[in-house]
Structures are given as structure tokens and as C-alpha cells.
């Protein structure tokens, strides 16, 4: 598989000339691990929640934030636009983990799928990724 060309923009961010989908979170509304599974474990204990604490979050498939998706759209002129779908309670953690790893400098648009806490309670934290 050929490696994609990587460019460094004037602001120091690494830019790829391709579009991408970045899954920021794939967990349920309470995220994973579920706190109740850990503080009042069932008998036998929940395997997924117990396993979620065995590795660091960035290496652990069972440590998951609220469901959210970032579309990194790269147009024909090579300019990136970032479209965020849902901004849940765990958005700050998603920014610290994935925006830094993928060098996402800002968000251009937000799509909210519904008005529940798992989709909107991170809206206040959007200010941290906006340049203005």
C-alpha cells in the first residue's frame, strides 16, 4: 500500500490531501466503561467494563466515548473542512485524544442528530477548538 503524501501547512499542522472519517466515539450515551458496572459489579462482572480498565484508553477498544464522528473533507483544491456530527458529554476527552493525534486545528460545521445529552452537552467545549 502506497503512503499518502503529507504536507506541512504554514501553521505547522500536518495535512493529508485526502478526506477521512474519524470516529471520535462509538460508545453508548453513558460511555464505556459504565460506572455502575465498576462500583457495583454484577456476578459475574461485566467483561467489557472490567476489561476497559486494563489498558490505557488510546490502546483499548472497550474504552469508548459518546458516539461522535468527524468528517475531514479535503476538496479538489487541497483545503480541509472539518464537519463534526454530535458533540456529547465526552467531547473534551475526544478533542484531547483524537484532535491532537490527527492534528485537527478547528471545526467548520456541526451537525446535531438529536437533543439528548449524549449529543449536545459538549457544545460549551467547542469554544476550545475555534480560532475566534
From TrEMBL:
Gene3D superfamilies with a match to the protein in the record: Ribonuclease Z/Hydroxyacylglutathione hydrolase-like
InterPro entries in UniProt: Metallo-B-lactamas, RibonucZ/Hydroxyglut_hydro
A Pfam family the protein falls into: Lactamase_B_2
Coiled-coil boundaries: none
Domain (Metallo-beta-lactamase) ranges: 82-130
Domain of life: Eukaryota
UniProt name for this protein: Metallo-beta-lactamase domain-containing protein
Lineage of the organism: Eukaryota, Viridiplantae, Streptophyta, Embryophyta, Tracheophyta
